[in-house]
Amino acid sequence: MFFLNIQDKDMIISVCGAGTMGRGIALLGLLSGNNARIYDVSETALQNADAYIKTQITKLCEKGKLSQEEAYRYSQNLLCTNDISMLVKDANFIIEAIIEFPEPKHELFVSIENAGLSETTILATNTSSLSVNVLSKNRKYPHRFVGLHFFNPAQIMKLVEIVQASSTSEKTVEECVALCTLLGKSPVIAKDVPGFIVNRVARNFYNESMRIATEQMATPKQIDSIMKSAGFRMGPFELMDLIGNDINLDVTKSVASQYFYEPRFTPSLMQQTVVNAGNYGRKTGSGFYDYNDTL
Length: 295
What we know:
Structural class: alpha/beta
Number of strands: 8
CATH class of the largest domain: Alpha Beta
């Protein structure tokens, strides 16, 4: 059976979802010297992803981190498409990075398989909280299915959690480790438990901060300042605004339900109120902070 040679260039790294995470992963693929494809049903999302990636490449060129030749080649190696057959064709990796709910993910995986998924292709989910074992059920090639959890922003954050389902082969894990290394990441193999490693730890980082703010023991700005003075690059409220409060809250709810609503994982009404108001964070111009003057 043929498996990938990760050291070879010109691999095709396909990404499902043209949002913040998807376009960041695609950019990583391009900067590693490989081809990247982004699939989305939204033409607007694809146009925005194409513009964002090419702008980032141009900025790297202007800073002298890429030659003009490299910048041109990387831009040419990007394909944004709403044709799922183009996503699947000859892909070495297909990484799903869509909404954090199981049903849309399952539907997408079936569509990918029906579009001609090859047994040599690794199909990965970027889920941050859902069970990879559950998502691997009924897959056509379960031994080639794996969790690849990148962190936002994907092109900057070094850590990637590789989550092995019970059906995932060791060879698949090895190839994912090699891919992450090629992308300049620090891969960590995690067990398939709710929240994996980072999001299990992070729930308490976020939730306890919101408890303190809700009890009016300190303001979000004070809490962020204290955490940064202790060595954190960002405070919890700044980080939730960067990730997106809607996404962050969905992850908290997912982890809480999978731990049978253990009290320490209970979502915060404070964050739910912010989300109800549509204040998702930087992407909407306001969250726990107002960003309208900086956009």
